[in-house]
Write a structure and sequence with these properties.
Number of helices: 24
Shape: globular
Structural class: mainly alpha
Radius of gyration: 25 Å
Number of strands: 5
Number of domains: 2
């Protein structure tokens, strides 16, 4: 057979580029930079609603406020604080959005190298990284102030180090992984869900190779505690200040979360639907294929990924809270690795052209799918999300379409509220709208004369009764959605029957009927 003679044709140029990509070891950096460009272009230009958490984290970062309960994320606050010191001329909200984008792109880059280490296939690694980069939940959280891309960045480093130890030997990788584990737990308790899979992984490696001894285990535990230095410090501070030890231990091991766990078939089906939405069509099929193809990996690695996926998936299925969908982001990361396995298994012997077509589909189909879904729901007035209606926010596009570069709804709300209410007003409301208002007060210095109050409906009404007649009183939001009214979490017009309610968009002024 004669060797192929390259000519200056489109086909030959395509083959040359493809061969370069197959042999390039720096492609992962290119993937990371490409995802960073995508996130930068679609980044939220300011404060996002974020369920109120985006505003809360910005305030905590500004004040360097450390607390410790399962929802306080002290390591994120510290890391974001140092990032906010960079000489970037922008609002704090935008800088922290950029921090999320940077962590997201680092996650994508490391994910590429994880899959490459396991498959030695550049195209499979690209498929996994690209699929995850444009997956709905991860893409959206890479654009606003939240802890989840920082979590996935630490998680991907942790997995890479474990695999490097298994593949290359050298206890340094394992020791570094233990330190990263401590850091991960300091950022988010979701990191604890790695323990079942990691214990099984280490046990199999010990059984096969007798690579770990008691002194190694003790040193690993020490390094994990060193990584969790913030938790150790905050816990010690609480003890010194006289907090009850039982309360501290309860928060530290997440007993309130454990008590909220219960398996639900409805949430299980919802998780499968969300998995399909995050990895539409080809991505979902390749991931399912890769789940079964994982058995081609060494036994310890197969068990590691299967247990990681199961534990990461079961937690959002069992944890019954309003926004549990975002807790599945760790499972999506593992599913992206399965996509890499599935790509090798299904397309390993395919032509470069066919592989490229699949890569393009995996990278681009999500954008059209997400936009099309949001637009269709808008056109037919379908309320899939059943989320609360907040001023100036289009729920279908906010929740179903990840790009946030045109979203200024939270900023508009906060600034308009503070510009329209009377001097020395008192505003009551639930967490989300009040935190947005507090952001503009505490971060941008607007209207320090205004006082706010956060609470459940009855608490809001009690405060209104106390203040009414002494200061102008406003309600931040009134819920009109019948589905959400039943929850009892939001103030409704029925709750305010004894008052006169005057709409002064985007808030409501409350006066007495007398």
């Amino acid at each position: 057979m004669k060797p192929h003679l390259y000519k200056n044709t489109k086909l030959d140029r395509f083959i040359i580029i493809t061969k370069f990509i197959e042999n390039a070891k720096l492609v992962g950096l290119g993937v990371g930079l490409s995802s960073l460009c995508l996130y930068y272009i679609t980044l939220c230009p300011g404060l996002a609603w974020g369920g109120g958490d985006s505003a809360k984290f910005a305030i905590w970062v500004k004040k360097l406020n450390f607390q410790w309960t399962p929802s306080d994320h002290p390591l994120y606050v510290l890391a974001a604080y140092f990032f906010s010191l960079l000489p970037i001329k922008a609002s704090l909200a935008y800088i922290l959005n950029l921090f999320s984008a940077l962590n997201g792109s680092l996650t994508v880059c490391i994910l590429y190298y994880i899959v490459y280490m396991l498959t030695t296939s550049t195209t499979a690694s690209l498929a996994a990284a690209a699929s995850f980069a444009v997956s709905h939940t991860f893409w959206m959280h890479s654009l606003l102030t939240e802890v989840y891309t920082f979590h996935t960045m630490l998680l991907s480093i942790f997995i890479y180090l474990l695999l490097a130890w298994q593949k290359k030997g050298g206890k340094g990788f394992l020791y570094a992984a233990c330190f990263i584990f401590g850091l991960g737990v300091s950022n988010h308790l979701l990191f604890l869900l790695t323990l079942p899979g990691v214990f099984i992984f280490l046990f199999v490696e010990w059984w096969k190779n007798k690579r770990l001894f008691l002194k190694d285990t003790l040193f690993m535990a020490f390094l994990a505690l060193a990584g969790a230095f913030m938790l150790v410090w905050l816990t010690a501070t609480d003890v010194i200040q006289g907090d009850q030890v039982t309360s501290i231990i309860t928060n530290l091991i997440g007993i309130p979360i454990i008590e909220s766990l219960n398996l639900s078939i409805k949430r299980l089906l919802l998780f499968v639907g969300l998995l399909l939405y995050n990895f539409p069509l080809f991505g979902f099929l390749l991931g399912i294929c890769g789940f079964f193809a994982a058995k081609q990996q060494p036994f310890s690695i197969t068990l590691l990924f299967i247990f990681l996926f199961i534990t990461f998936s079961l937690f959002p299925v069992c944890y019954n809270v309003r926004d549990n969908y975002q807790f599945a982001i760790s499972a999506y990361l593992i599913f992206a690795i399965f996509i890499g396995f599935g790509f090798v298994f299904s397309l390993g012997e395919s032509s470069p052209l066919k592989k490229t077509i699949y890569l393009v589909c995996l990278s681009t189909i999500s954008l059209f799918f997400y936009y099309g879904t949001a637009a269709a729901c808008n056109y037919f007035s379908i309320d899939v999300i059943k989320a609360r209606m907040l001023p100036y926010r289009n729920n279908n596009f906010y929740f179903l379409y990840p790009p946030k570069n045109k979203d200024r709804s939270a900023e508009r709300y906060g600034k308009e509220v503070l510009s329209r209410i009377e001097p020395y007003s008192f505003i009551v409301g639930d967490y989300t709208p009040i935190m947005v208002i507090k952001y503009f007060q505490e971060i941008e210095g607007l209207r320090p004369d205004v006082e706010t109050f956060i609470g459940l409906p009855q608490k809001q009404i009690d405060e209104v009764k106390k203040i009414l007649g002494k200061r102008p009183v406003y309600i931040a939001a009134i819920e009109e959605n019948s589905h959400l009214i039943k929850t009892g979490l939001y103030l409704t017009r029925n709750d305010l029957k004894e008052f006169v309610v005057e709409s002064i968009p985007p808030v409501f002024k409350i006066t007495s009927k007398n």
